[in-house]
Amino acid sequence: MKVTVKFWSYFRDFTECNETSLEVDDGATLGDLHSAVMEQFPKLAEMNNSTLKAVGVDYQTDDFVLSDGDEISLFPPVQGG
To answer: pTM higher than 0.85 for the full model?
Structure first.
């Protein structure tokens, strides 16, 4: 199945793109996808433990099962001040 991954904030600098499409196996989880994205974009690996992940507009955990056509957003922790 095909999903779209969007990168936000300085993750765009790390990946040198705004988004990418990936083919994942049926039953793949958000954690599986995140691992595949880090393989494709190794600079993101340093942010592995602090990456925020959303499917559609909702934050999800790594065990969330993806569906064909999902739009996943990956971004660094929100900062303010």
So the answer is: yes
| CATH 3.30.10.20 corresponds to the domain 2-75 | no
**Per-domain boundaries in the chain:** 2-75
How confident is the model over 2-11, as pLDDT tens digits? 999 999 999 9
* Tens-place pLDDT, residues 14-49: 999 999 999 999 999 999 999 999 999 999 998 999
- In a 3-state reduction of DSSP, which class is residue 6? strand
For residue 21, the 8-state DSSP code is E
Amino acid identity, residue 78? Answer: V
Q: Return the SS3 of 74.
A: strand
- 51: Cα separation from own chain's centroid: 8
At position 48, the amino acid (one-letter code) is: N
CA distance 49 to 52: 9
Characterize the bridge pairing of strands 71-75 and 2-7: parallel
